[in-house]
Design brief:
By secondary structure, the protein is of the alpha+beta class. The chain has eleven helices and 19 strands. The strands form five sheets. Strands 9, 12, 15, 16, 17, 18 and 19 form a seven-stranded mixed β-sheet that branches.
Length: 411
């Protein structure tokens, strides 16, 4: 008795997905829960696992096709029946099943034992560089191969395979002369969705940005004082983000309109503090959400942020992780940004931009001293947030960070 593999139920906000790549071909054996195919939505890449152990009898949808919830992807034959029946139907048989059956596509070569636990990002790197996953020793949990493992392998291989300069033939034509040096690729679903949301934000919200600067002397001193004992006790490093999340929550308590959104002619005030943290991935910017951030300790916040970082790198982020945020924090400082005007994440009414920490001369008590300064930016929806509220919101964050005791006492 055959088993059908269908597109899983997509989240309510997602209408369809694009089939990115198959990892098995007709006739190949699969194990239960082994990833068969990647489906890309406008937010994440979904993995479709095998419901049983067996053999792929037929593949119905090709690479690049758009699919919807419940659509038939493939047919599996249980392992015991496959052994009795002999080889699975070949490509010609698969194509002859009717007009609805699509051509069977080229299959990802990374389908051996080492590839069974790989995330989509790792698979794409392996394909791009034509690497057998069995050649790489994974540093992840249970030996899982991470993106960093592949990049390290590529770097070592390139170093070993460098072609001597004298062996490289000179170009027949000078660069840029008589040549077309451009290439064109389609946007990914995520990139297209990001573009759509950015344009939507620009066209629907009355965005305005206000700035301030924060002296992080006390935060840095506190981190230095407790860094080792914090990490020993909680198993995670004490970063800056947990301080900024707590400072943001305190500011949102005082100015709840920045934790609100517009629905029609109504302003919806959110009682929960579900803070989105913008994370750069190879597919584009995504914003996983820390739910109930006000109920989490510094250690809980750092562990949650670290967990999301791992999920993003390994391609394991879920739709639930990305929905329901009420306010967003983005940190361009990790890339060296000094100042920026972040764009709202609709339908939220505010987004906080963090930037690089730089030692700068400042005047303190009439004397010029050098202090670690960060510029911060708040972009807000001026339709419901007044300028005075936005300025005071940033001042509250500034005060909380320049005197971290305020975060403990909530004063």
């Amino acid at each position: 008795m055959t088993v059908e593999v269908r597109v899983p139920q997509l989240p309510e906000s997602v209408t369809d997905a694009v089939l990115v790549s198959w990892h098995k071909a007709p006739g190949q054996a699969v194990k239960r829960d082994e990833n068969l195919v990647d489906l890309e939505t406008d937010k994440i890449v979904l993995e479709v696992p095998a419901p049983i152990s067996g053999v792929i009898k037929a593949i119905r949808i090709e690479n690049g096709a758009t699919v919807t919830s419940g659509q038939l992807l493939a047919i599996l034959e249980p392992a015991d029946e496959a052994e009795a029946a002999g080889p699975a139907e070949d490509t010609a048989t698969t194509l002859a099943t009717g007009a609805a059956a699509a051509a069977v596509l080229p299959i990802d070569q990374a389908s051996g034992p080492a590839a069974s636990g790989l995330g989509p990002a790792v698979r794409r790197l392996l394909d791009e560089h034509d690497i057998d996953p069995d050649q790489i020793r994974g540093s992840g949990k249970a030996g899982r191969i991470l993106k960093s493992d592949v990049m390290e392998f590529v770097a070592k291989r390139l170093h070993l395979e460098v072609v001597p300069e004298e062996a490289v033939p000179a170009p027949a034509v000078a660069p840029g002369v008589g040549q077309n040096n451009e290439h064109r690729v389609p946007m990914t679903r995520l990139r297209a969705r990001i573009a759509e949301r950015m344009v939507e934000a620009q066209q629907t919200a009355a965005m305005l940005t206000t700035f301030n600067e924060v002296d992080l002397t006390e935060v840095k001193a506190l981190r230095a004082r407790y860094r080792e004992v914090f990490e020993q006790k909680h198993g995670v490093k004490l970063g800056f983000m947990s301080f900024f999340v707590n400072a943001t929550i305190e500011a949102l308590r005082r100015f709840p309109v920045l934790n609100a959104s517009i629905e029609g002619n109504d302003v919806v005030y959110h009682d929960d503090f579900d803070i989105g943290i913008a994370v750069a991935s190879e597919r584009g910017l995504i914003v996983p959400v820390i739910r109930g951030a006000d109920r989490l300790s510094f250690a809980d916040l750092e562990n949650t942020i670290r967990g999301y970082g791992i999920k993003v790198r390994e391609g394991g982020i879920s739709m639930d992780d990305l929905t329901g945020g009420t306010f967003t924090i983005t940190n361009g400082g990790v890339f060296g940004s000094m100042l920026s005007t972040p764009i709202l994440n609709p339908p939220q009414s505010g987004i906080l931009g963090m930037h690089a920490i730089r030692e700068r001369p400042v005047v303190v008590d009439g004397e010029v001293v050098v202090r670690p300064i960060m510029y911060v930016a708040l972009t807000y929806d001026h339709r419901i947030v007044d300028g005075s509220e936005a300025v005071q919101f940033l001042v509250t964050i500034k005060q909380a960070l320049e005197d971290p005791g305020r975060l403990l006492l909530q004063v």
